[in-house]
Every structure is written in structure tokens, then in C-alpha cells.
Please model this.
Amino acid sequence: MAAKYDVVVVGSGNAGLSAAVSCVVQGKKTLLIEKHNLPGGVASSFSRGRFEFDPSVHEICDVGAGDDLGHVGLIMEKNGIDVDWVTVPDCYRCISKYSDGTPMDVTIPAGREAYIDAIEKYVPGSREPLEKFFDLIYEIRLAKVYMFDGTPNDPKYMQKHFPNTLKTCGYDSLSVMKALKIPQKAIDIIGVYWPYLGVPLDEVNFFHFGNMIDMYVTRRAVVPHHTSHEITMTFMNRFYELGGEAWFNCRAEEFLFDGDKICGVRTSMGDVECDQVLANINPHIIYANMMPKELVPEREKKLYAARKNNLSTRFSMIYFALNKSCEELGLTDYCVFFAGTADSRKEYENLKSIDNDYNILISYNNIIPDASPEGTCVISFTKLFSDGKDWSEMTAEEYYKAKDKMIEKCIEDVKKNLNIDITPYIEEVEVATPMTFARYLGTPEGTPYGFEVKSWDGVIARMTDIEADFNIKGLRHIGAGSFFGDGYSSTWINGDMTAGLACADLEEGGK
Amino acid sequence: MALNVKVGLIGLLDMLKFANLAKKREQYIAASPAEEIKADYPINNLAKAMHPDYQPLVIDEIIDHAAAGAKTFVFKRADGQPACYFRAGQYISLKLPIGDSFVTRPYSISSSPKWALEGKLAVTIKTNPGGFAADWMLENLKVGDEIKGTEGLGSFYYEKHRDQKHVIALAGGSGITPFLSMAYAIRDGIEDFNLTILFGSRNEEVILFKDEFDAIMAQTDKVKVVHILSEEEKDGYEKGFITADLIKKYAGEDPYSIFICGPEAMYRFVAREVEKLGLERKYVRQEFLGATKTVWKQPEYPQACRDKVFKLTVKQGPNETVCDCSSNEPILVAIERAGIKAPSRCRSGECGWCRSRVISGDVFVPAETDGRRWADKQCTEIHPCASFALSDITIVVPGEYY
Model:
């Protein structure tokens, strides 16, 4: 056996990176293992020709700046992570149909005032309920800080300071926005971000959704200057600096037990002894393949049954490098949503089909002029699927045809919605599919989003008892399949918080 | 006015609803049946089948192209599975156990993707005097030998949304192999484009795949091969080298893309000719060249380091190996000589599969094969297949799954 570690972090996705750095910052002897040959999971980059592409990033929330740091910003500061961020000025442009079937084409800036002004312009009569909405999500921000600061929560204090949070947060987002008397068309505009949480507005908990809007709109989103691989390497360099050790192309094969407690990890590079494991692996994979069946808790078998059909969004990403600038092409927005309908429930149903109309266009050079060589640009499209079935029955030959179809759909979407033909300018094109994500992340059906935050399984329900799903001694789940759901920010926070729990356990054990 | 939001009829019940979220969740879970946990997903299975750790291959047939100094190795999957499907033009990296070393070599696949579905795959290897792996393979490999290889790799293939429908291939020597695969793919209805191959050989006798191409041309009019002989004048053949004029002669009226694959000397000549055509950059694509064999001729190379032998310390997981490292060869070669199984694929600095971290010491990375990510260039990550030691160095390499 190799040297004994306090903590082994398995998987170097966003949660794994955050957890690993958190552990070394707390002085723990930490090993990070990663089955791929480089760290990051979706927070990475790849090269084609003279271009470097970001595989996943749209907008990152909850970072903040200066003396108004968000939760993510505070974690980064605490852990000594300093990334070259670029602020995203607008939330999005959305070309779609309102719930009532009338056409929608809105451009929504970030910042509370500008956001409300814009929506009032498109949907007169929205201002007053939107002011209330923003007061409410600001209260939720404060409540969140209080609730998840690691100290016990006092119900009386919460009732006094966060009454509206308590009153709204048992509900789905659609109900709360209706109760605030926000016009349906304005709800449609606010709801454009719903796919980032994976379930429609009538299902996603308002605390979760409202907080996301607060983070994106009030605090504004950021992106890394040089692809998300830059963020990943900032984490890695900090990890190395504090004595962390990382093994790449190293697969965790099974967890080793001493009685009912984890005591190590069997890897493709040998057995490693440790006290604590932080597993950036979907829990289904762990329980099915990586530990003795008899040690799988009954409660986790029930949780599996409750969730097995609720894998969250699968993705296809289509990346183009064009040999003209965004300006020359007329691609003036950073982020454009093309949606069949703004009715999130209907769209969620549409997303079960591989042929759905949903697509998100990101034109990086609009906020990062040097994202590609001068006179060129890189753009990406994100297609979502709320079911994996259409991808599940393919042969390898059909798979290549499905990739072609994704490319053609993107070309068509830009032509139809923006009246721009990118065809003559394509210098590089690459497609990632649920298979690609499955290959690099190893998650069920390749979902980078974990489990759907259904009404019974919402993030707030999970977070009010964050240890509820950690039922094996010495093992904690991190990543999108853990308590905080999907997204760069959520998984960084999740990794950091969970590392805190593991380190506390170590200290209790006298380490 | 203070904010007072009420969603349900009675605000107090709303609060209770919030307080009960976690309890309700546990109740929901408790009410579900305990099931055996399975993780078997067709999407993940296809991903694994297309990108296995390696393909176990067994040599099924060896075709000798004696005059050309080449052999075609036809492989079958040793496990009876279909070979990994690929795009015509891609390469596989073979993992060769030579002596005490594990050496990888990238070779373009010369067979049709259709063969892969039938479980077969071929590469064609030409003698390379003074080289290492190619001649070892030509001399040692026999039918029945087992070898490990990757799936099809690289982006050197026809992409209909990107390339012109007419592709002019410029090939020299064994650089013809990806184009043979493309020609088969066109014949087999897998790809749909017009392929004109300008193929340079010394004389008629040494032309690789002449019969194969003649047969393909008899079956489809989408493939056309023009043979250019540098050392022989003969009817039905062009004489000389691949020049801009020759390309224009066979290009016809339609716009075209140029694909280049051949030895370095041919590539350097042809690149100058292609430049005269004034094509947009996106219409000229080339297969990787490999790392330089004369690093001391690279711009900014510190000449004092030439012909030196440094100490290389390689950390891989819990293991550490110390070996010699010639400054004239890529660091990867020293790693392989030391018998360490380290990952590598393209051996041209591009694919990043060998990505490793330098802990101490200095390295030289030739700009022309520096395919590293931006952030990697800011720290000490290198691609050892195209990096050279300038001092004693310690590096951390990834593991390998074979």
C-alpha cells in the first residue's frame, strides 16, 4: 500500500477540485485521483486547429467582486483561488414564444434596475411585482448566508429576519411568482433560465430558483478569460502549492472497508489507505459497481428507486470556430436562447425528444475579444434533453449521423432566428453528445447535472439535512449528484462544504 | 411598506411547509421500495465501446508490398468484438512491446470503416531506415501476434459542414494510407464527397495500392488518383513533384479543400506550393508530422544543451523511476526506454494525451508542435512527446490502462 492519506478525493470535476483545495487549506494530507488524463471534468478545454474551445461554460454565478463577494467568491478568497474573470453585461437574449403563443424576442440586461426596466418595457405593469420579487430574493440571499454558514439555525431568528423566505420557500417557483402577481409574460422572461436547474418552474423550489436569479441578475455572472481549464489549473496549482498530490489516468475501482467504515480505495495504480473519501462520482455508480453489495444501506436502495428515473438534463454541445469576427457576422449577443416555447413545463416535455427546438448560442468573443485569433470567433451551442431514450438506441454509424444532425440544427437555428448563415465560415466544428459526457464524466447517461431537483428532492430539502444521504462511514458524495445540484458554482460550494464535514470528522478523530 | 408575501391561504402553514421539506423528503424515500442498485446505461456502454482503454487486436493477415518496402497488417479484434468504428482518415496508436519498452506509434488506418463493423482493421507500414518501431514491426510481427491499439483518433477526416465537397489529397509515400481509407469509405457509401488524390512516388514500381485504387476507380467516379513519379517518365503518369500548377490542372472549376499527408520533406515542399493557391486557411488541412528529429535546429534552442544526457526522474502514482534522458530526443522516448507505461497517442505535441507536469528542471517546447492549452503554457504542464530536456528534470506522468 502507498502512503496513508487523510483524505482521498476521487474525481477532479469542479466539486473534486474545490474539495481537494479545501482539504489542503485545512492542512490535511490529500490525494486527488482522476480517471482521465487531465483535471476538470467539464471545466476544461480542447484544441482544434488554431482554436481552443471551452467545453461547457456559459455564465458562472455567485462570484461577485470587490467587497460584494458571493458565496463562491468567498470560498475562492478563503482558499486562495484567484481567477481572471470577465463580467457578463447582459443576462441573455431570448427568441421564443410566450406561454400564450405570441412571439418573444427580448434582450435582458443584468443588474436589478436595468433588468426590471427592460421587462417593464416588454411587459408593462411588471415593475411593482418585480420590485417585490427582488426584495424577496434579496431576503433569500441573506437567509441562505445565515442558514448555510455551518452553525445551527434558530427558528425564532429566522422568523424574525426571513419571514418571507420561510413563507415562500416551501413552494414551487411558478406558484410564488403568481402569488407575487407577476404577469405571465414577465414570468416567461424571468423563467428563461429554468433549464439551468433542470426542472420546470412548476416543480423547482422557489428558494433555489429565486436565489439563482439573484445571483445571475443582481450580482452578475462572470466567465473565465481563458476557458474553464484556466479555472481548473488555478485550483490545481493551489492544490500543489499546499502539498496536495494528484494522480491522473488513475481509476478508482472499489472502496475498501474496515467493517462498515471506508479505509481506502483500490485504484488502477494500487491500493491507497485513507480515513475519508470525498467521491465526485454519481452515487448510483458507487453503489452498483464500487463496493460490496451487502454494505449498501437499505435507505440508499430506496433513494435509488425514488430517483432512478429522475436523472437530470443530458446535453449535446456543438462548437464552431468561424473565420470571421462576431462583428462581421452580426453575432452581437453573448448569449441567445432559442426556445420552442417559454412555457417551461411544455418545453420540458419537448426536451424528451432528440429533435427538440431548444438551443443556447454563446458567442464568446463578444465579451472575450481574444477568445480566438483576430478576425475569427468561437461559438458554441447547447442542446438539452430531459430524457436519454433517443440517444440510447444508437449504433456507432447512427451516432455519427446524429452528430451531423446536431450541427445542421445549429446552422439552421442561426439562419432562422438571426438571419445569419455561418456555413461558409466554418473552420472547425466539433460535437459533444451525452456519449461524450458519459465518456469523460462517467455519470449515468452522461448527465453533468446529477438528479432532478423534483419537488420532493429539491435542493433546499436536501440542504436542510445535508448529511442525510451520507450513510457510509468515511464516504461523502460530492458533485452534481450530491446535495447542491448542478452547476459550476453549486458544485464548488458543495465540494468545499463537504470537505469541511470530512475535515471536522478527522479532527474529531484526533487528526 | 414591509414585504409580506403569502403564497398559500394561511401564511403560517407556508412556514410549516418549509420546515417540513426535509422530513417530507425522508418520507418519500422511505415509501419507495428498496431496489438493487444498477448502473447499466446504453449511452455509457456505447461511449465505452467507442472509446475503450484499448482494442485487443490480433494480426489476421499480412500483405507484403515488397517493392514499396511496406506491409499491410490486417487486424481482427482478439475478443471477437467489432473493431471501434472510426472516421476515414483517422489513425490508431499501436502499443508495441519492443524489448523491455512499451512504445506507441500512430498509424493512419488504411481500411474502410465498413471493415470495422466486420471486426477488421488495417494499417500499412513502410520501412523507415534508421527508424525504430516501423522496421521492428516489419521484421518481427507475424500472423497471430496480439497487439493493443487505440480507437480511431484525430481530426484528419472529411467534415461535410466544414470542407469543400471536392477534396484534393496531396500524398507522399505511406501518407497515402488515410486517403485509401477515405476512398473505400466513398466507394462503400459511408462518405459522400469527390476525392482527387495527387500521389507522389519515385517510380511506377514502388507505388503503393495502385491496384486497390484502380479497383475503386472502376467502382465509383467520385475517386480519382493521379500518380506523380519523381524519378521516372512514363505514359499515363505525371512527372516531377506536386506543384501549384499540377493542383490547378486537376482541380477543375469547383472550389476545393486540400488535405496533406506525407513525409516531412514532401510536406515542406508542398506547403509552399499550396500557399501559391491563395486558399482560405480553413480549406487546407494536414495530418500531424511528428515531433522534430533535429531539435537543435529549432528557433531559440539553447545550443549548449545539444547532445547532452540528463537525469530524468519520473513519478507515476506511488512509483518513482530514475533514468537517463537524451536532450536530442523527446522526453517521452526516455520514459519509454525506461520501461514505464505512460500514455501517448499522436506523438506530435497535439492531442495532449501524454500531458505531464514538470516539478523541477527546464524543458524546451518547439513552437511548431506546441499544442498545449493556454493555461497549461502558463504553468509547467508539458506534452512529453514534443518536449525536450534542458537540464535534469523531475516530472509527474499519468497512468496508463494497458
Remarks:
- Chain B has a mean pLDDT of 95.
